[in-house]
Design the sequence.
């Protein structure tokens, strides 16, 4: 191994010290936003979580375009078909840049009469891109029938099919739209409720604080699953999908606001005796202005981090309710509705691909947790 001279080692140390000095000097001129962004980028898991969540919400926005079929498309000849793998090499045609799948031929076992699907290795079906298919509205506004991919003759089921012959890949993508947004809407409602009640409780104190705190204690003492079941059972079965969606969102919000209210109350109590708050009060500022303009900005970064950590609970809540059959129901499509078929051990043992939507739940929840940890460290370094 080549030896390094003392002079060269000294030069390297000097260069390293000079680089550290420059970085330290840059820290003094950076804005608070850039400093927080640098702290956030140092957490690699948080960056990965952010990238994954951007990808998930892009899937939710363009799910109809990315899915080769609609959520209600049924192929009765391919019930419980196993997933079709993508291939690039064929024995006769050789390597191809365009991926292809082998068509599946269905038959029945001569003894058990169980459906069996075998790949037709002689007739590969090459994927076609930007094909015409079932009509839909892109982003809910633009009527079109263009899908990202499909096959000219036959079908492509990358995640297999369910017990009714519906494409699990398309339904998983379409389910992303509901399962990923219910957390955002639910957290927004719980944030507003917790911010209002927590701010009132901490700022005024006295009997108002006692009443709100006892309400929080009562809400937090209720068993979650039975209360979810009771509130969901109160939702009429004949309601349309959109109304049930908002009802489930409100139910989840009503059960998740106490934690946010406690956090806001503790922050208000610690800040209301500060000099700048008393000065604003003496200057004639109203209660609403003192809370929103002077106190709330001091701990908004902490609330943002708490919100990012609360969204996974909302997603898991919707998934749990739909999995138990008391949340969203067909024809709605969400990850929880798709996992409803996986309740029976027999279905999981025979058709394990029905658990694929659960993998999306795990990845999304973990990404939110990583992002929340990164935001908490970046926005609140003392946490």
Sequence:
């Amino acid at each position: 191994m080549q030896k390094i001279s003392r002079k060269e080692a000294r030069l390297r140390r000097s260069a390293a010290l000079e680089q550290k000095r420059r970085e330290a000097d840059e820290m003094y001129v950076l804005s608070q936003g850039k400093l927080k962004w640098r702290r956030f980028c140092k957490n690699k898991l948080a960056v990965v979580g952010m990238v994954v969540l951007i990808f998930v919400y892009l899937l939710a926005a363009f799910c109809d375009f990315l899915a080769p079929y609609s959520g209600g498309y049924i192929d009765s000849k391919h019930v419980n078909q196993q997933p079709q793998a993508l291939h690039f090499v064929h024995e006769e045609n050789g390597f191809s840049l365009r991926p292809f799948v082998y068509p599946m031929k269905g038959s029945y076992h001569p003894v058990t009469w169980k459906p069996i699907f075998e790949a037709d290795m002689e007739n590969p079906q090459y994927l076609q891109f930007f094909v015409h298919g079932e009509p839909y509205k892109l982003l809910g506004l633009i009527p079109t029938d263009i899908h990202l991919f499909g096959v000219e003759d036959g079908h492509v089921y990358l995640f297999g099919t369910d017990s009714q012959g519906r494409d699990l890949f398309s339904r998983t993508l379409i389910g992303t739209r509901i399962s990923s947004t219910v957390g955002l809407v639910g957290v927004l409602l719980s944030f507003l409720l917790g911010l209002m009640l927590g701010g009132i409780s901490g700022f005024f104190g006295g009997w108002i604080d006692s009443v709100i705190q006892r309400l929080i204690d009562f809400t937090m003492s209720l068993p979650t699953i039975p209360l979810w079941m009771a509130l969901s059972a109160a939702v009429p079965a004949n309601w349309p999908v959109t109304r049930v969606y908002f009802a489930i969102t409100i139910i989840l919000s009503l059960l998740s606001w106490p934690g946010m209210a406690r956090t806001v109350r503790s922050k208000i109590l610690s800040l209301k005796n500060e000099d700048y708050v008393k000065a604003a009060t003496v200057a004639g500022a109203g209660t609403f202005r003192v809370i929103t303009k002077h106190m709330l900005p001091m701990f908004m970064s902490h609330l943002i981090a708490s919100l990012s950590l609360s969204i996974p609970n909302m997603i898991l809540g919707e998934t749990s309710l739909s999995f138990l059959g008391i949340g969203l129901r067909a024809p709605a499509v969400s990850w929880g509705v798709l996992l409803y078929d996986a309740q029976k051990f027999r279905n999981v043992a025979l058709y394990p691909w029905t658990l694929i939507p659960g993998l999306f739940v795990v990845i999304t929840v973990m990404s939110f947790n990583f992002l929340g940890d990164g935001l908490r460290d970046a926005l609140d370094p003392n946490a």
Notes: The two ends are 46 Å apart (CA to CA).
